[in-house]
Design goal:
GO terms for molecular function: phosphatidylinositol bisphosphate binding. There is one protein chain. By secondary structure, this protein is α/β, with parallel strands linked by helices. It has 2 domains: 22-89, Helicase, Ruva Protein, domain 3 (Orthogonal Bundle); 93-284, Phosphatidylinositol Transfer Protein Sec14p (3-Layer(aba) Sandwich), CATH 3.40.525.10. Helices cover 44% and strands 9% of the residues. The chain has helices at residues 19-27, 35-49, 59-68, 73-89, 104-107, 139-153, 157-162, 175-178, 183-195, 211-220, 226-230, 239-243, 264-271, 275-283; strands spanning 111-113, 123-128, 164-169, 201-207, 232-236. It has a 5-stranded mixed beta sheet. The two termini are 16 Å apart.
Length: 294
């Protein structure tokens, strides 16, 4: 699929942060004079405690766990332990998964990721759950796609610092969708978005929700910590409310924004051409062989 003129679906992997992002990192506790010391402290903790066996322990890899927990070494270590425990418990989310096999989520417009950043420099991912047809696409594919996006996003230094934003569009949500939201599914969703990945979800904006969501949300509420609740924002169909948090210049037209919307497929095709990303995903258990033609 050809990329639209003037639109670049790419990752920015440069180690040097833009000045504005570097200032945010400094406020979060990132100090160039102590970076090497804290990385080494985390590496030593991994070896000494032995509660997980990471596939990498180089500086670039460890720094994303430290950034995700504001340079608190103990919290970064605990995050790493949870991350590998989550992977061990859910190998079907990544093991021998070909990212290109997930293109149906883009074709059906269930997931989209904007090539534009918001006013703070954060990535914006949209999930349109009402367009998901459980009889066509198994729920495990939603987890696979979400985990893949978070894994790839965590490779971007800027995203490591700023985190990302999720828009959960619930237009068209039915009881058939709600029946798939079991407590076990809810726990895995929270693990991916809040507790077990080395990339912060800074905000989650719920739009176009109705009574079905209000019913299904009762499953989630007991599992939410106060910190998680502070990241959730409910807007219904009120676009003015949404724009208080995300500038329309970073939003697609369907949410009162100024930008066109592009499918998840564009990201997949770009990532498949990025050798560094492909190498990292293969180390994580993904496969990259071309899909057979129909």
């Amino acid at each position: 699929m050809p990329e639209p003129a003037g639109v670049i679906h790419k990752l920015y992997m440069e180690r040097q942060l833009p000045p504005k992002v570097a200032e945010v990192a400094r406020v979060q506790g990132e100090d160039p004079d102590r970076t090497s010391l804290l990385i080494e402290e985390l590496r030593d903790m991994i070896y000494e405690k032995g509660e997980c066996i990471p596939h990498r322990v180089d500086d670039d890899y460890l720094i994303k766990f430290l950034r995700a927990r504001f340079w608190n070494v103990h919290h970064a270590y605990n995050l790493m332990v949870r991350y590998y425990a989550f992977r061990e418990s859910n190998p079907e989310f990544y093991e021998n998964v070909n990212p290109m096999s997930l293109r149906s989520l883009g074709d059906d417009d269930i997931i989209s990721i904007s090539p534009y950043r918001d006013q703070e420099g954060r990535r914006v991912i949209c999930f349109k759950f009402g367009k998901w047809r459980p009889s066509k696409i198994p729920i495990v594919d939603l987890f696979r796609a979400t985990m893949l996006l978070l894994e790839v996003g965590s490779l971007e230094p800027q995203s490591q610092v700023l985190g990302g934003i999720g828009i959960m569009d619930l237009e068209g949500l039915t009881l058939n969708h709600a029946w798939n939201l079991t407590p076990a599914v809810a726990q895995k969703m929270l693990a991916l978005l809040a507790t077990s990945m080395p990339l912060r979800t800074s905000q989650i904006h719920i739009v176009n929700q109705g009574w079905v969501f209000d019913t299904a949300f009762q499953i989630f509420k007991p599992m939410l910590t106060e910190k998680m609740r502070q990241r959730l924002f409910f807007h219904g169909t009120d676009r003015v409310s949404l724009h208080k948090y995300i500038d329309p210049e970073a939003l697609p037209e369907r949410y009162g924004g100024t930008k066109p919307e592009y499918p998840y497929t564009y990201w997949l095709e770009h990532l498949s051409r990025n050798e560094k990303v492909v190498d990292e995903l293969q180390q994580l258990g993904y496969v990259s062989e071309p899909l057979a033609e129909d």
